[in-house]
Amino acid sequence: MTCISCNKFHDENYCPNCGEKNGIKKITFSSIIEDAFSTITNMDKGFLFNLKALFLNPKKITTNFISGKRKGILNPISYLIISITIYLIVINVFKAPPEEVTETTTSAFFASGQKIGNAVGLFLRTYIKYFWILSIIPLGFSLKLVYQKYNFLEYVAISSFVIGQATIVGVISFLIFRFPLIFDPFVYLTIAWLSYRIFKDNTAKIASILLSFVSLFLFIIQLVIITACIAFVIS
């Protein structure tokens, strides 16, 4: 059979010259749907593979991805985006009814602070997808500062895996406790737990636990600063 990409004749499943798969089917509506679902539901590759691996052996999947062994692993940014999309779908389907606001006599200072807080809350709810995706940068910086093992972009990739997985935990937490994603304690505990599992030193487990919480603390401090900057701009 002749390769459709480089025209090399071969009898392998994949072209030995360029790696193109043999026997590619024509694009149809059913093939598009099938490929989309396969990316998400296949336990040997794609979203569910990442989900399973990050729960069972997060160190292996992240180490493999960084070292270039990426067969079956869904790109960390794609994993994060899918996780956030699932969260947004869930909160829109199961959102709580709006609370009734009662007027009370308050000081001008408190009223002003409440107004700014409401504006910041609205901003974060509106742009939560982008805010949470960009949070991989401060987390990557925190991990880089604490562990000093990889370069910054590699830590950003690891952060994408970590925050994507924490977001899935946030979906479950929301269904039970109705915690907003960025204020959900289970999300941040998951980030600390994954940091510990990925960078754990078996000869110094206590130190590894402390380092994971130090990186989490640095991450939260950066989120607070970013939120304060948003409040300043809005005010």
TrEMBL record:
InterPro entries: DUF3667 (IPR022134). The chain crosses the membrane at residues 77-94, 130-147, 152-176, 182-199, 206-234. Keywords: Membrane, Transmembrane, Transmembrane helix. This is DUF3667 domain-containing protein.
